[in-house]
Amino acid sequence: MVDFHGDDNRRASYNVGTLPAPGWHPLLAEALALRIGPSGGIRTLSGSKMSWRACTNWAQFLSKADPIPSAPEELTRDHVDAFYARPGASPYTRHTDMREMRIQFADSHLKGRLPEDAWDALKRRLTKPKRASVSGYSDGEFDRLIAAARMDTARIVRRIRSGEELIRRLHDEPEALEPEQHSLAGVLAGMAASGEIPMLQGGLADRHRRAVLASHLYLTWQDLPALLALLALVTERNGETLKELPVRHRRLEDRAVELVVVKRRKGTKRWFETVTWEIGPKGRELHTPGGLYLLLLELTARSRAASGSSSAFCIWRNVPQGAGSVVEHFAPFEVDLSHGSVISMTKWAAARTKPLFADPKPAAKTKKSQVKNVGGEAAEKVSPAGPAPLKVTFNRIKTSVDARRTKALGGHLPSAAKSNTAQVLFTNYLQPDENTRDWAEEVVTEALADAEQAAWDAHATAVGRRGEPTVIPTAESPQQLEQAGLPATTARDLADGALDTAWTACKDHDQHPETGATCDDSFLACFHCGNCLVTRTHLPKLLGLLEGLGAMRQRMSEDAWWDRYGPAWVAIRRDILAKFTPAEVDKVRQQPLPDALLDLVEAPWDQP
């Protein structure tokens, strides 16, 4: 027997003697004890169950292997390989089982108990299988979900407060009650005093009436999905943390509530975190985390008093074993977090009077209809998909609230990280979310558009001072250039290449249009200068420069690249290439392009 006692006081016992492969029992028992015992790395009940499951799968596999390794000394590499590739188990199960058994057998107390080749096979590199990503809700789905959760929670609050009000009126003003109200108030007063719900005769139908009677004062199973969903939406915490909310807390001037919550996945010895939640004004309890937490304590006060639990979640359950006694009051998550597996927020969302539906998917094309169109051919019929129920899970809620918080903070991950590190926030919640990816793409697109517009504005400002480049797309010979308006000498020199610079030509290097002196600007400034001349012969150099600027962009920060090269890049694309036909540009691109010659604008060449 291997006993487990977790840091949260949850316990379990595992009987290794019930497993097959008895020759392995001593080693498996020792390995499991070292893994889940007081000095082991597993400190949660769910973690101990995972370790036990891996042991069980290992023993069951070995008992059916061929040949059967009746003792650890008989284990071979082939056995380990077959365990990792065993059919009938999902890739994720095979991965976690292999990893767990490797950790268990790797303890220093057990080294050398397995043959060297088998241990070498256990130490192989394991590639974690990809799991389906969890996407958050769209804005419309999120708004519908939080509205439904608030509506149903408000209905629960009104129900229990109405029962409490009946008891108060029975004591303070019994004569003001109607006969039916007086009778019900008497029953409720007896329930409040004893914590016991009267037994009713009549089988299943009266079990239902008994549950309705208890719901006047106590939370029931049916109330938990809406409450848990709203808590997750408002507090922005995961399901495990919410299920273990404590009763103990401290009020801070009636403005906030301070309590210690549990966040297991932060690692051993770092489970507990002190949080401060805003209470908010009266009447807004369903909108603030502190107000909702105090409201939860109000709704569960009587069940907690009857059961003696210190858990914030305490409900009444209709069970035959404890019918008519205080045993029916219990904390569903106190013993085991998975005890509430019967709670389904998805079923709650679908079973409401006004069900929650996911956003409609794009219409799917069906097979070609037999209906003929005007031309006599079979038309393709498009059938709109029907509304699908909204799937409500803690993971999707957490993904959605984290994404919304990150967007509100401008995408700054260190500021947006709340209950996780920035890396975990991005990897597990933001990266898989389709809505966040769409938003990020929009942000990047807008940022690039702003950067390009800023570069174009800088180009336009420079052109306003120095003049605009002269682009002659259809002339190459001296006669054609002269007909295009150039002086005869300039046309001849341009056609001969005597005026060429790095990527364009300059008609008067000694007369800067802004200073009147000899030009000592960078070659990148040529694209904002009235002395600049561009003809069809310059296209290969210009396209080569654009290619070089694109490569440089991969090696520099976006801000530095736009600051140094952005104005020239925009001027070439929008002010020069736009004056050539797309066919001309494509024809040049199909040929080998010359070197970008960017070293001509780097230090020390760029210095006057």
List keywords for this structure.
608 residues; 47% helix; three-stranded mixed sheet; mainly alpha
Protein topology:
Layout: E1 2-5, E2 11-14, H1 25-36, H2 45-63, H3 77-84, H4 91-105, H5 116-122, H6 139-172, H7 179-194, H8 204-214, H9 224-235, H10 239-243, E3 250-252, E4 256-262, E5 272-278, H11 289-307, E6 315-316, E7 329-330, H12 345-351, E8 364-372, E9 378-383, H13 394-408, H14 413-416, H15 422-430, H16 434-466, E10 470-472, H17 478-483, H18 488-496, E11 505-506, E12 532-535, H19 539-553, H20 558-576, H21 582-589
Helix pairs in contact: 1-2, 2-4, 3-5, 6-7, 6-9, 9-11, 9-12, 13-15, 16-20, 19-20
State the separation between the terminal residues, measured CA to CA.
84 Å
Q: Which residue ranges are poorly predicted, with pLDDT under 50 across at least 5 consecutive positions? A: 365-372
Q: Strand portion, in percent?
A: 5-15%
Taking the sheet with the most strands, its summary is: 3 strands, antiparallel
Helix content: 40-55%
Number of DSSP strand runs = 12
Radius of gyration: 37 Å
Number of H- or I-type helical stretches = 21
Widest beta sheet: strand line-up: 3-4-5
Tell me, rounded to a whole number, the average pLDDT: 84
Class inferred from helices and paired strands:
mainly alpha
Net shape:
flat
